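Hey,

Quick one before I head out. I ran the complex with 2-deoxy-2-fluoro-alpha-D-galactopyranose overnight. Inputs first:
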Amino acid sequence: MGAQQVRERFAELYGAEPEGVWAAPGRVNLIGEHTDYNDGFVMPFALPHRATAAVSRRTDGVLRLHSADIEGGVVELRLDELAPQSDQNWTAYPAGVVWALREAGHSVTGADIHLSSTVPTGAGLSSSASVEVVIALALGDLYDLGLQRWQLARLCQRAENVYVGAPTGIMDQTASACCEAGHALFLDTRDLSQQQIPFDLAAEGLRLLVVDTQVKHAHSGGEYGKRRAGCEKGAALLGVDALRDIPYGELDAALARLGDEEEVVRLVRHIVTEDQRVERVVELLRSGETRAIGPVLTEGHTSLRDDFRISCPELDLVVDTALANGALGARMTGGGFGGSAIVLAEATDVDTLTKAVEEAFAAAGFTAPRVFEAVPSAGARRLV
Ligand code: GAF
């Protein structure tokens, strides 16, 4: 929805113009999956799909929230009653950010907020992080909190981990806050150092398709947390702070030391090889060998399917069908257990590929997927 529409709806709901309108995008992760809570590397880019928020300050300790995308009216909350994991609804994301800001000592005295989003929910495209980041950016601006983008991302992650109760890493919030149009973000999640890597597929006659399988997923469910706990167990058994500290060249020796801890062996192998895949993709993009990243993306999928075990039949079908129909590479993206896959393809193959995936889904009796082209877009910003 455009800034003007969001602004007008705010005025209808709250009886006055908002002080401003902000937007924050969803993301696609090109490579580097589940590495973020292992202090590793990730490489997301922002989608044109975004959460837009019209916001005004209040001084009476009240937070009023409304979403264009959810049935129901304005929800009114008192700031001094906000408490972690007290809310199972969509309001937990914006309220969690207000809670995290106040908990960090920032003086936020209330807000009226109207939200509208074009980021598909439950599709592995960071709809939650986009809501968190747009609220943090808006309140940071209005209350003049002087927060840098990486600080916004950390606060949003805290809102998600503690207030919402989902044990996610820092990738999605940083992507939404820091990505730039025409670039992928090479992020070191240990110190949040980042490099913008030019990623202009159209200029090279390439396309990156997102295939939303329509299989919904949630990170507050147990499987994500189990993978995270397994990785932490691996790091503890190997005597390192995080799996990021196992160099790729020492992987075999590290796995041998894990003995018969089969599940941990698989998790460790995925994380260490995935960090190396991110570094390979960065090198290939830097040297202009964009087509050569395809097989690296596909290796990433195999590792997520067989070692990390977070794929599902729909995601595997996208990858297999795409590869059988000329894709350069394909993989699931995001947290897994559903959500979306990405497909790197020649522009000239897009129609054939899309049709092949749609037909394969129909033949398998799966819900029709939603396929769209992902163009690396701008990060969070003020619109009005
Ligand atoms: C989800 C999480 F929110 C991220 O932090 C990340 O772990 C991702 O899954 C997997 O790479 O999007």
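The mean pLDDT is 97.

Talk tomorrow,
K.
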